[in-house]
Each structure stands twice: as C-alpha cells, then as structure tokens.
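Lecture 7, part B: from sequences to assemblies.

Below are the input chains for today's worked example.
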Amino acid sequence: MSTPPSSAATASTPPSSAATAGRVRPAQRRPFPLVRHSLALMVRSLIKLRRTPEQLFDVVATPVLFMAIFVYVFGGAISGSPKEYLQFVVPGLLAQMLAFVAVPIGINLNTDITKGIFDRFRALPIPRAAPLVGAVMGDIVRYSTTIAVTLGFGLLVGFRITTSIWAAAAAVALALLFALCMSWISVWFGLIARTPGAVSGILYTLIMPLTFASTIFVPASTLPGWLQGFVRANPLTHLVGALRGLLTGGAVSGPLVWTLAWCAGFVVVFVPLALRAYRRRT
Amino acid sequence: MADTSEIVIEAEGLIKNFGRTRALRGVDLSVRRGTVLGVLGPNGAGKTTAVRIFATLIEPDGGHARVAGYDVAKHPQKVREAIGLTGQYASVDEDLTGRQNLVLIGMLLDLRLGEARARAAELLDWFDLADAADRIAKTYSGGMRRRLDLASSLVGHPEIVFLDEPTTGLDPAKREEMWGVVRSLVTEGSTVLLTTQYLEEADALADEITVIDHGRVIAHDTPDGLKRIVGARTLEVRPADLADVERVDRILRDVAPGASVEVVRAGILAVPVADESAMTEAVARLAAQGIGVIELSLHLPSLDEVFFTLTGQPVDDDDGRPAGAGRPSAPGATAGDAR
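Predicted structure of the full complex, as structure tokens:
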C-alpha cells in the first residue's frame, strides 16, 4: 500500500482523473436504473449459484423423492394404481415444489442483512427495490430447474401430457410466474425475521399445511365439508387446477383466472410490504 | 485545493432512540471540506448511530443532518451519490471474489463494464489485493477483508468518506497502513469522518476531534487543544533490574521537573511530560548511566483517562466494551510507535 491510484499511471481509467477538488461521480446517471441495477444484482446471485451448485441439490432431489413416495407408496391406495395416480399427482407435485422452492430466497436475503452486505447496497444511489428484484430474478434458475426436474422425472416414469405442446408451454410459464410472485412472501419474511433460521421455520410451517390442504394430492370432494371451504380458497388449489387443465385436459379458464388473481394479489400486497421492511430495517 | 471553509457534513440536535435506548440525545457536529473529523468515544456512545444517519441507513428521530449540502432525510439519493461508507464490520460479499465485489459496486454506480473493471484493478493494486483479486473473499484474512471493504466504498471516488472504527481489531502494522490510506484520501481532496476509540488515532489523523459520550457531545477541539485539556503525555519506563528503580526515578525527576513520578505497576515508573523531547532526554541519560530498560513508552492518555478528565467519571462499561479499548493495546503504546 504505497501510493494512491494516480491518474497518470492508468491512462485507461477516466474515473481516477477526477482526483481534483470537488470531485464528482465518474459516471453520468444513466436511464432505467431499476432494470440495470437489478440485472447487476441478479448476476451476483447467479455467480453465487455457480460457485455453490449444491444450492440446486434440493430443487433436484426433492421433486424426485416426493414423486417416488407419492406415486409408489400412496398411489395404489389413493387411485387404485400408481399409473393412474401419476397422471393426477404430477401437476400437483409441480405446484407443491414451487411453493417449497420460494423459501430459500428469504433465507438468503436474511443472511445478506445479517452480514452487513445490504448496508452497502442501501448506502448506494440505486433504486431501493433493486437488491430485492435482483435476488428474485436470480432465483429464476432455481424455479426453472424445479419445473424441469418435476416434469422431466414425471415423464420418465410414465406421466403423459395429453394436451398440446402449446398448452404445456403455457403451464410452464404459469408455474414460473406463480413462483416469482409467491417468492415475495418469502422476501418479506426474510426482511422482517431476526435470523435466517426463523425465516425457514416460519415459512415451512405455513407452506406445509397449505400444500396438503389443497387438491394437490386428492380431489376436494373426498374431504370433509369444513375443510373443503379452505381448500377451495387455497391459491395452490387454483394453480393445480390450471396446471392439470393445461397438461392433462379439463377446465382451464376458471382456475387460470383465479391463479392470475392470486399472483397479482401476492405482488400487490407483498412487494410494498417487502420494500417497506427493507427501508425500515436497521 | 479544496475550499476548507465550506461545511459538507453537519448535524444539528441529532436525536435517535432505539426503543428505550437513547442512542443520540442532541448531537451537533460539523466537518469542513477536505478535512478529517475524528469522532471519539467508547462503545455505545452513539458513534455508529450517527454515522448510519449520515449514510442514510437510518433516519433521525429529531434534529437535522446534512451531507454534501443535502438533508439526509429529504434527499437520501443525493447524499448517497456523494458518500462512501466503511462500517465497523467488513461488509463484503464472501461468495464473490475481491474483483467481483468491486466490479459489482462499479456497475451499481453506473460505470460501464470496462470502467468498472479498470477501477477495480486500480483499487486492488492500491490495497495490495492484486494477488488475491480472483480468490473468493471468504478466504481473505481479517485485514484483507477490511481493505476490500474500504476499497468497495471508494469505487465511486466519493467526495465524503465515513469510516466507522476502521482499525478496531487490526494489529499495529495494519493500523498504520490504514492510517496511510486515510491520509492519501485527504490528499486527494476527500472529506473524512472517522470514528475511533483511540485518542492516538484521532490525534494522528484528525484536524478536529469531537468527543461523544452517552449520545452527547462532551468536547470539541483540535487535537492539540484536546490534549491540553486532557493532560500531557505519559512517559513510562520499566528498568530491567529492579535495583535500578531508584536511579530511574531520579532521571525521570530530572527530565520532568516538578512532576511527580509514580509507580503505575510493579516495576514500572511513569511521569507526565510536556512533549516528546523528554523521551529522547530520558533515553540519553539512561544510556549514559548504563541502565538496562525492558520497556520504554510515551503515550497519549487512553480513552479511559480522557473520559475521566472530561466527565469526572470512568467510562461506563455496561455496553460490553471489548478488550483492547483501554490502555494496554492502545495504538502507539510502545516506544517504536511514539511520534
């Protein structure tokens, strides 16, 4: 550590030539800061993911494990044969996996806060939402992997898409959209919880009953009346309905509209909550 | 040269409460452009809270804070464009390399990719991190992380730099390096607000010192003015042979006429002296009489002594002040460091 960076030594760097009185920021403010800064922070997430690919272990192993258990252990008892149950449960498992995969983002954000890295972002002249949006966008890789593994493994063991390639593509797009919107719940918890452990504790406790008290594993008609009301309001029920319609046929428009409404609801409620929590976090 | 009459950091009656804890109870301070203000105080005095308000991380409950001409509560984005912040705990992304950390900050400051890379390389060179540039920060030592953290806050050539206890926990050599960085920042025209628990550090770097305690300013002066208030330096000598204590005592009386020589710890004699020349004098006399010495030091009053003088009370330790804040490990406590 001898000399400060001098403008003469590095002619290729205009920034350092500003070493005079009343120095200004080297760069002009450029347009679309939210988009550019979110993208930069998304790249940060992706670099971290590439460095520790074991972060993807859960999104690969969990769908495989759950499908094996539900199809071969419970399938016969529920539907008469594993083969028949497979057609019913694959769209359901897809919805359940998407609910699970939204949890780690909150844990990661909470870790960032605990380590102080978010203080640095908050002291920079960037849009307040950028670190959060960047983290959510970086999670697209995890969501896509989840969808690919769940559908891929399902197809491998005998699940058949009986609609069209376009309907299937729409199902994938809907699944991705739902995960992106729902992840804001996790983002919010990540910002208000005191420790990373608390984030996972709270979220898994909420998501577990939500995934089982739905039409993911059984039709609503098999449930007691008092539970049916909850199941019919459950956003995962609507998502599963739409995915089943798009992948294996049946009514699409009703559950699709409800699913999109829930997606909008998540964004409208939890994005402002998350931004407020981010601003207030001390 | 920067116009040093312009005030670029200013607080008026700053108040901040955390629940029932009154972190700041009406702090006033100001820093002129191109100068260094040392904010001196023990843990829990409110130093970090004040820095976090200036850096727009938290909002004050009362009073005003202006940085670079903008109110921190009303125009936080304008303030953020002018500042760099290095916290007490190095906030670097451990999963990225040193270079990636700096390039990311550059991109967030709207540099183009090429510019961000060039600036990162420049800072890595300056902070002696070029060899470790492409290793992930998790593998860095504590000192390296501190340097990367400081480098991160300088990517955008901020005109105002906040350093929150930049040397706490660093060994003396690393501390000297950090001091060098602060001095070159000022040479380049930056304005620096630095918090510290060491009078030595504030004395070495700051143009003015504000002492805060329990969320209040209890003194503000130049380093020389403050030293006049809190008392002279102390010369401590520990003879190798206890039998020499008498002769050392006589020498100390001679170099500091009128002052009283005290035994501060077993076998260690201390005397307040007016300036550094007393040390040279003492060394010469000790050598002339052939007295062996195993410890010889000249130090400024420790934070505890400063506070005792200013408040008449010892430093309140209920905030769990870490070891190292007191005299034994204060910087410059050894003869080699005395300036």
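Note for the exam: Residues 1-24 of chain A have pLDDT under 50 and may be disordered. Keep this in mind when comparing with the next example.
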